[in-house]
Specification:
four-stranded antiparallel sheet, RmlC-like_jellyroll, alpha+beta, cNMP-bd_dom, 9 helices
Length: 194
Amino acid sequence: MSNSLQQLKQLVQAIHPITEAEWSEFVGIWHPFMAKRKTLLTVAGEQENYLYFVEEGVQRVYFLDQQGREATLVFTYAPSFGGVVDALMLQLPARYYYQTLTPSGFLRASLADLQLVMHQCPAIETMIRLGITQALSGVLERLVELQCYSSADKFRSLLQRSPHILQVVPHKYLANYIGVDPTNFSKLINSVRG
């Protein structure tokens, strides 16, 4: 089994254990996909057709308002699931963009294949539901940070969740995620580390 499939299996088993027979069904729906740096994988207003498993690279989900301002909502990197999952599962046009920040490698599964394997294997449907619930829990924690934390506290929290993030995500996107002007980001780094 390839390293990527092994990482996918470990992630699945950490969310909700499935049998080897269920794994055989699940692993069969994933296909390799590569994207260059700054590729829009999902565009707001369009349908999200895939669930991604990140093998390499860094991506972000972001919102673009009517004035053209970006709000970075989440970063994805190996080994994790990615995409605009609400649009995928609800079959609604995406409200967000999913963009590669670096050259990226994925395994991806189509919604049709995902729905079929979820229908055939209730444990896989349970795993998907639990994975989405864990993601929702993370979103709720993030809302608390946005509403209650200072910029320094948001940054500390981010570093606690993802200690390596400064090495993998360009600082201008981290500044956007935290909600500070990119020109002040180095001051924030120094104040938190100091």
